[in-house]
Amino acid sequence: MSTALPVFEDVLSAAARIAPHARVTPVLHSATLDAAAGCDLHFKAEHLQRVGAFKFRGACNAVWALAQAPAAAGVVTHSSGNHGAALALAARTRGIACHVVVPEGAVASKVAAIQRYGGVVQRCAPTITAREQACAELQRSTGATLVHPYADAQVIAGQGTAALELLNAVQGLQVLVVPVGGGGLAAGTAIAAAALAPGCELILAEPEGAADTARSLAAGERCVDFTPDTLCDGLRGTLGAPNFEVLQRFGANVITVSDADTVHAMRLLWQVTKQLVEPSSAIALAAVLAQPMRFAGRRVGVMLSGGNVDLDALPWSKA
After folding, report:
1. Beta-bridge partners for 206
2. Domain edges within the chain
3. Contact in structure between 239 and 187 (CB atoms under 8 Å)
4. What angle do CA 177, 181, 184 make, to 5 degrees?
5. Whole-number Å distance between alpha carbons of 180 and 81
6. 48-94: per-residue pLDDT in tens?
7. Is 3.40.50.1100 the CATH classification of the domain at 56-146?
8. 229 Cβ contact partners less than 8 Å away, ≥ 6 residues apart
9. Nearby residues of 187 by Cβ (< 8 Å), 6 or more positions away
10. What pLDDT was estimated at residue 319?
């Protein structure tokens, strides 16, 4: 795993490296949502990325950055779904093996995607400790390279390419709103924004039931001893150490959002734009709607991070 903090040049290198494999996703706009939010919203549609999430960018960059000898032994990771699927597909583009440790209780459709792209799934208890131990065992037995879901420098740089595209496509953005869990997308966005739009405010959208980033930035140190309680399954991971360092350095701020507000935003996006995104993605719009005065009249970029929804368990179907 690459652990040195990435810089903007790494994001540019990642963009070139993944260009043959990743999609340049569209930027969506809705006058109806502009009116509802009281600002000018520009949605980066990463739910239309390969595997249905931004995660393919970082995974692809990490896989193709490997030298030939370590690549031949394959890659390993732990993931609740999107990163695992992304790494499995990225590994397939290079013809190498991919092992994914999946916690019990992961969304079934996401686990199916990992297997569909050729990933070998190993189950573990639903704790970070269990995930990391299982990964370490697989590394020892297979010789595979660990590609961490969010704390790997190549992953962070790859995730930053989404913001790179957005900032090049939409001029004059004053705010970027990005979901945060482990912090890969958030940190990559911070690096790209600092270089391309240094006056642009970075706001992170985080579930109230997994608000370790908000606590960590407020305390000035990582506060990650908690049990997540949120339907945003992609945001249950603890904030990574390099991710925290990047976010602290670039002055990111956090808005915490209730699951109820996130579900409302998810449903609103489907009703108005006909885009079905997962809760971990809809939380970015929910953050804007939760604090309208903070965004009033501003030009706002919103990262729609993924669209891998379990259609048999839509969050409003039991309401």
Report:
1. 256
2. 8-53+152-313, 56-146
3. no
4. 75
5. 16
6. 999 999 999 999 999 999 999 999 999 999 987 889 999 999 999 99
7. yes
8. 209, 210
9. 6, 150, 156, 159, 160, 240, 242, 243, 246, 247
10. 46
